[in-house]
Amino acid sequence: MSIMSKNLIAFLSEIPFFSEVSQASLQHLCDNISEESFIKNETIFEKDTIGDSMYAILEGRVKVHDKHHVYDTLSKGDCFGEYSLIDNETRSASVTAIDKAIVLKIESAHFLNLIKQDSGFTQGILAVMIKRHRELDTIQERLASSKKEIETASNKMSGLINGAMDAIIMFNSDFRIVLTNPSANLLLENEDSLQRNVLFFFDEDSANLIESLVKSGLENDKEPINKYLPSVVKVIGSNNTETINEGTISKYGNDSDTFYTLILRNIEERLIAEDTINLLTNKAQYLEKEIQELTNGYGIIAEDMSMKNVINLIHQVSKTDATVLIQGETGTGKELVARAIHKESNRKDNPLIRINCGAIPANLIESELFGHEKGAFTGATISRKGRFLLADKGTIFLDEIGEMPLELQPKLLRVIQEGEFDPVGSSETIKVDVRIIAATHRNLLEFSKSGKFREDLFYRLNVFPIEVPPLRNRGNDLCLIAEEMITQFSKKLNKPILDLTDADKALLLTYNWPGNVRELQNLIERAVIVSKNGIINWQAIIPNNFETNKEITQVNKEKILTIKELNILEKENILRALKQTRWKISGKHGAAELLQLPSTTLASRIKALGIERPI
Fold first, then answer.
1. Exposed, middle or buried, 257 (CB in 10 Å: 0-12/13-18/19+)?
2. H/E element holding 366?
3. Taking a C-beta distance cutoff of 8 angstroms, is the pair 394, 347 a contact?
4. Is 299 left (phi over 0), alpha (psi -120 to 50) or beta?
């Protein structure tokens, strides 16, 4: 802040009209203030002209007059024309410079804008006006010949107070109410609250807060109270209506009389609006995530019979409202199956809400699913709608249902059987129309027998079971999915990629894929990132150690390979031998010796399989 700006703020704070306004608010006022000069006998403004500004005298003197009758003489630190800030009435007198005068000009447009935007500025101005309102007798003595002007001034100040949308309550040091505006009467539900104890209109915590603020101010009279209430306060009207309010408190007065002004604003509607916004935001986030996963997904590729059976089951159950339990290893695409069921169902135009039961702490999952009321637990400052309510008329997908806490399972069973639940901390029963799809990588039947999952809940969920096969059992689907993913990541990363060769496919088919489609997706993304000139070194990407090969042999020992698959495996095996021997076919340490084949037989197989040494 510049020295000039500090001096100007200090000057304005000495002017009675701004004496209760904070330094920060005066800084805002200074941002749009101008300075004007007038020579001796020059008119600053004339009577009966429309006023749009007030003035504060920096230097010189001026007179307030009507023709030759002088009402008052003003000098440095005095101000005039204040009422033009709040109305469009004509000037009641003329003002002329007695000698050279320099004044600060404050336009009504800027003043009114500060009133709207700066509650501290408004509070300070109102405090001054209330103070002036109580000093009308003194004003009347000074301006005995201007009774009409005094009445007009009083009406303007009262109009400003009474027209305020916020509740204004003034009380004395005994907490007796001495002034209220209409907004305060509505808040207190009482038209005759004068001389009543203001603390009676608050709950215990709020009354204690206001009382402590007042007493702290009384202990040190030289430090006036002028602050925001540190927390919201609850007002209890005469008809027992409770409202939540925020506000400010200020103190003014003299040695014999001290008064306090509470300015309160009802924030009930704002809290309701915030709750609505939170609900809509949650819905938007769920829908946004749904759209993102749909657009980023690779669909369900199903040429293998094992996956075609899953597609058939989806078609059979999608048009019903039957509860579905999707089982399968981690990463097999259980969520894609759930989305496909919802997309084909009669609920497709309503939300599909997903929740991972294993990703939310046990003490929060009940609130996430069923919502809670304000005050239901520590930190529940507002009511919240649960995901079952968000999914009303739609579908809820309970991923990793086996991780749901045992004590919460009866509540889920009630939703499935009765279509109703009670939010946390509420006795109100809410009815919902929700289709439930659950998924798990666990054997829930075995889980229930060991007491870790309710058996009755398992049977309610297992109305229509769908088993998603692991990727290693889906045959050529693996290569088709890989090719689709390669295309997607190539576009996303703007990298050219060659098609999978038979050798590449053989490598993909010989790996066990314990992480299923999710692992395949991660490996392919990495492969595209590190690819050079469109070529991927799949041997460096795909895990391929002795233990893995041993597992592959054990898993695939019952799988019948086609002649094409055998040729692919043989070609890849010969290529590995040739690379290891640097393409030496016969002789000691040659590929034929490594493969334990006659060199003539190996040469014949190389030719038959179309193996060529790279240049």
1. exposed
2. helix 362-370
3. yes
4. left
